[in-house]
Amino acid sequence: MGEAPAFCFDNLQNGFGLKPKGLETSADVGDKTFVIGGADNDSTSYIGVKIYDKSTGKWVIPTVLGTKPKASKGHSAILLNEDRIMIIIRGSTPDDCIWFLEVDTKYVKEQRKILGTEVVAWSRGVRGDAEKPVVISGPSGVGKGTLINMLMKEFPSMFGFSVSHTTRAPRGNEKNGVHYHFADRSVMEKDIKDGKFLEFASVHGNLYGTSIEAVEAVADSGKRCILDIDVQGARSVRASSLDAIFIFICPPTMRELEERLRARGTETEEQILKRLQNAEAEIEQGKSSGIFDHILYNDNLEECYENLKELLGLNGSAPTNHKPSPKGIDLPLNHSVSKIDNKILINCETLELEKASKNLIALDVSSLKGGAPGRTRGLNVYALDSFSDGLNEKLS
Asked: Residue limits of the Guanylate kinase-like domain (predicted)?
């Protein structure tokens, strides 16, 4: 790690110290200087970002994607891997103090090409990892809903559904945030434009979609997210930054699927024929598109369910308790920051981090996963007595 005297908090290498309220931090990436702080271009409630292009001598206001961190009393900024900047926010809540501003990641590069403008993207940092979400698709009548309900019944504390968004009005006893997130069309259209949705579609004039935040909220609760979406939605999710398992449920034959649809007794002949036509197209895409990691044939429901559990690692002595929600990092107002390799060291005058009497916190960023427009997970946190502590006391 190097000797402690080589590092001085008053003269940071690859980092910038805390600034008084109203001042900004900056980081150089290539011929661009990213200035972070002050008011956001759209609102004074969020941290702003602007870019100075040294090659042209001009300032650029970028398109900012992802959920933005709220304006704060100050922050530290540390450049990581030339593609993102870690932001440590002063005076924030424990679960809201670590953010990443992506400036040249794969996601940002893709969005830059799509939008034709300069782009940056925010991602909130989270301690620890989360189980991969599970995307389940299949034609109507194939039994995917039944399979999902069986999973939820057997493992109620392990799995959770993401709540979809829609612009249609609530029906009957539908509750906002339970059955759907009911949204104004203008708000949802803006969020889609800002890259906050994994997938969306227009159905009978109304928008439906799965937001990144809805999926991340399930992971934040310590559960594994299940997404029940069609093939087109699965294609969009596959193209996103979400690391998920993709499973397609297929009927044994089209004749069997037709018999199941007719047995429902809920649809007209025209509707059944339409569903069968759509099913043929979905099955062809599901088998040949390369979207799905696994294809399960639902010839026998119990056998298909056992195969599904095996794919998810739930056969045998599977744990039934969900992981605890990731803990935040409780930082005092007065602290300073430096960087050593893949470790970010935070020097605190006083510290009450899980009742540890340490004066240093180390953030290990060597195992980061995910990223904008969702969470950045995999942060490991250590409490140290001093630089020579070796970064070997890991907090649970």
From this structure: 131-313
- CA–CA separation, 58 and 228 (whole Å): 47
Stretch 306-332: mean pLDDT, rounded?
70
Distance CA 34, CA 315 (A): 49
Go through 165-176 and write b for each residue having 16 or more CB atoms within 10 A of its CB, e for each that does not: bbbbeeeeeeee
d(CA 187, CA 167): 9
Place of tokens 């047995």: 263
Q: How far is it, in rounded angstroms, from Cα 320 to Cα 89?
A: 36
Query: β-strands 134-137, 224-228: how paired?
Result: parallel
Fill in the amino acid letter for 189: E
394, β-bridge pairs: 382
**In the structure encoding, which two tokens stand for residue 55, read together?**
């090659």
CA 226 to chain centre: 14
Location of structure tokens 């300069």: 118
Predicted confidence (pLDDT) per residue in 240-296, tens digit: 878 899 999 999 999 988 888 898 888 888 988 988 998 898 999 898 878 999 999
Residues 99 and 77 sit within 8 Å (Cβ to Cβ): no
CATH architecture of 134-311: 3-Layer(aba) Sandwich (3.40)
Active site residues: 171, 264, 275
Q: Is the pLDDT of residue 94 over 50?
A: yes
Question: Is residue 2 scored above 70 in pLDDT?
Answer: no
What are the backbone dihedrals phi and psi of residue 290, each rounded to the nearest 5 degrees, phi first? 80, 10
Q: What is the domain partition of the chain in residue ranges? A: 4-129+326-389, 134-311
Whether 363 shows a pLDDT value over 60: the answer reads: yes
How deeply is 30 buried, as exposed, middle or buried, from its count of CB atoms within 10 A (0-12, 13-18, 19+)?
A: exposed
What does the pLDDT read at residue 74?
Answer: 81
In three-state secondary structure terms, 1 is coil
On the CB side of 325, how many CA atoms lie within 13 Å of its CA? 9
